[in-house]
Design a protein that fits this description.
Layout: H1 6-29, H2 35-49, H3 62-66, H4 68-71, H5 80-107, H6 112-123, H7 126-131, H8 138-157, H9 161-177, H10 184-200, H11 203-208, H12 214-237, H13 242-253, H14 264-270, H15 272-287, H16 289-305, H17 308-327, H18 341-357, H19 365-390, H20 400-413, E1 418-421, E2 425-427, E3 444-446, H21 448-455, E4 460-463, E5 486-490, E6 494-505, E7 510-515, E8 525-529, E9 532-536, E10 545-552, E11 557-563, E12 569-570, H22 572-575, E13 580-595, E14 600-602
Parallel strand pairs: 1-4, 1-5
Antiparallel strand pairs: 2-3, 5-6, 6-13, 7-8, 7-12, 8-9, 10-11, 10-13, 13-14
Length: 607
């Protein structure tokens, strides 16, 4: 008895397709991405426009290169969020290819029914569901890691120039997708050594066998292509400067090939058991304890049978898991996605054993088979549904980017400058599956380079750790700000968009006095100037100050930050001390405040 039953396959497809359709819609709909995803698109834009200053040298190139046709649509007037949706769609298609490759790999070893059942289980993994819509490297890296292993298994059975070529291409693309995919090289090399030793019986026999060296040779060629492609892109970016390209390659890419910053001693300090916990709990959280027990039993079967694929998958998982656990200093749950597949292979191995040794003894096989499958599927379906529901959080559809683009581009078209204070702020959905394990999970960072990528408007980074007009700020001069200039304050839990109002007064123009007070709505500033009232709407969200600068007759400038309170009064005539030629007021008008949960507050401002 096997699982080659049409109705059974249809049932499994009915589980797989709705989830993929949902993720397809999500991919086109979500308006945010991780900082890494935005960096990939920024690199694509930098390569397309050959703007070196906006290129992030530590990012691998594959995702940026395949997004070049999409990012080029910006020059045709396509909005950035349409471009972002197309990029997400491309990521989704890569995820579908990963599922297809998973099925084909398993189909080579097991029945089509088992291969399909295990592929459905993989599609319900919470990490897979969460990351498939984003412009990130983890799902593509998983695809090329698995594809490289798949082709390597084929190469062990038959030699073929076309297989050699596809193997080199796949390994090269894996390295180009994510730098820690260098782990693929020792996994394949160790597999080749162990399998060759098993065939030949001695290390000397392995070394003397010329056919053994073909795999290391192909791996070396892949590394050469990896370096050559990076070098070629850098040469294009640096306008043909070979020497500078070599320097950038040598100082940035090659030392980062491991992307492991290897720090075993640091892990020893915190304790190896504690170091192991993060990825161990990641596996439980993403797949469930029941699935891990099934995979563990399948792994025991692999140790007994020692088929080529069993050995390869054992090396793949154990080497990668312990390298990531004990050698990585910085850990994120998504890093483990490329190393999940062996667990599903061993799960399929157990299904295969049960099918052949247990179900074959049962008289009413179909009656036993379906309930048994659904006992395995139901916890995974529950896991998957929970992760699907997380995408309904409003934070994924916030229009913050669209609104910031509108404000920034409008200011630029008027000839005003855009200034940024701070490094980033982060958006968070209400529920985060892995938040207790990984603080970076579901942390969607937005920073000045992202705003530049969204709007195409050049910004000026004034300070990384100082924001003007806040109560905790020390008085610093912002005299360079002009009316209509935009200030973006990247704070820890919000992004504040300010439009600057600059008022210059000379003694002869003052009539009466200025005051600011409002009992119901907060502070208002009313300054009478030649009969016209200039109105500042409520100063909220920690902004409680304006800047007053006195320009003396001799050119000296004095003054600074004036903190406001509900009853504070400035008499305009008292602004001018003896020898004052002009007074300059720098007033922040709040255009918009975006909070970390995606909530947006606007102010309709006058003046």
């Amino acid at each position: 008895m096997n699982l080659n039953i049409n109705w059974y396959k249809i049932l499994l497809f009915l589980l797989l397709i709705p989830g993929l359709l949902f993720l397809f819609v999500i991919s086109l709909s979500i308006k945010i991405d991780y900082w890494d995803g935005f960096a990939q698109l920024a690199n694509a834009r930098a390569i397309y426009t050959q703007q070196k200053s906006f290129f992030f040298v530590f990012r691998p190139l594959f995702i940026s290169l395949i997004n070049l046709p999409i990012i080029s649509l910006k020059d045709l007037g396509v909005s950035f969020f349409t471009i972002l949706g197309l990029s997400h769609l491309l990521s989704f298609l890569i995820g579908v290819l990963l599922l297809l490759t998973t099925y084909l790999f398993l189909r080579d070893s097991f029945t089509p029914g088992i291969a399909l059942l295990t592929t459905v289980l993989f599609s319900l993994n919470r990490l897979f569901i969460h990351y498939i819509p984003f412009t990130m490297t983890d799902i593509p890296a998983s695809l090329f890691f698995l594809l490289s292993i798949f082709i390597y298994v084929k190469l062990r059975k038959r030699r073929s120039l076309s297989l050699y070529a596809w193997f080199v291409i796949s390994v090269t693309l894996a390295l180009l997708t994510r730098l820690n995919m260098i782990l693929l090289l020792p996994v394949i090399f160790l597999s080749e050594v162990i399998l060759s030793f098993r065939e030949r019986g001695s290390i000397s026999g392995v070394i003397k066998d010329r056919s053994f060296w073909r795999i290391p040779f192909l791996l070396a060629i892949s590394c050469w292509f990896f370096i050559a492609i990076h070098f070629g892109v850098l040469v294009c970016l640096l306008k043909g400067s070979f020497v500078e390209s070599l320097k950038v390659l040598g100082h940035n890419y090659l030392p980062s090939l491991t992307h492991i910053p290897i720090n075993f001693s640091e892990n020893l300090k915190v304790g190896l058991l504690k170091s192991c916990q993060e990825y161990f709990f990641t596996l439980i959280k993403s797949s469930g304890p029941g699935f891990l027990m099934i995979s563990g039993l399948g792994c025991a079967i692999g140790l007994i049978k020692k088929r080529d694929r069993d050995v390869i998958c054992l090396i793949w998982f154990l080497f990668s898991f312990f390298s990531m656990t004990f050698l990585l200093r910085h850990k994120e749950v998504r890093y483990i996605i490329p190393f999940l597949f062996p667990l599903y292979y061993f799960c399929a191995s157990l299904f295969d054993l049960v099918l052949k040794k247990v179900v074959s003894w049962v008289r009413y096989k179909k009656v036993v088979l379906v309930p048994m499958s659904f006992l395995v599927l139901i916890p995974q379906i529950s896991n998957g549904l929970n992760e699907y529901l997380h995408f309904l959080d409003p934070v994924y559809y916030t229009s913050f980017g669209k609104e910031v683009i509108r404000i920034v581009q409008s200011a630029s078209s008027r000839g005003n400058a855009v200034y940024c204070w701070g490094e980033w702020f982060s958006l968070f959905p209400k529920k985060r599956t892995f938040a207790e394990i990984d603080v970076n999970f579901c942390k969607y960072d937005v920073n000045p380079p992202v705003i530049h990528l969204l709007s195409g408007v050049r910004h000026y980074l004034v300070s990384k750790d100082y924001s003007p007009f806040l109560e905790e700020s020390s008085p610093l001069s912002h005299l360079f700000l002009r009316s209509g200039d935009i200030c973006l304050l990247f704070l820890e839990h919000k992004l504040v968009v300010l439009r600057i109002k600059r008022i210059e007064l000379i003694p002869e123009e003052i009539e009466g006095f200025g005051h600011f007070e409002d009992e119901e709505r907060g502070i208002l500033l009313t300054l009478q100037q030649k009969g016209e009232n200039l109105l500042l709407k409520p100063l909220e969200d920690g902004i409680r100050a304006i800047e007053l600068h006195l320009i003396k007759d001799d050119g000296r400038i004095s003054g600074g930050l004036i903190k406001l309170d509900r009853r504070g009064i400035i008499f305009a005539k008292q602004i001018f001390f003896k020898g004052t030629k002009k007074a300059v007021l720098i007033i922040p008008l709040i255009e918009m405040v975006i909070f970390s949960d995606g909530e947006i507050r606007y102010n309709s401002l006058e003046g």
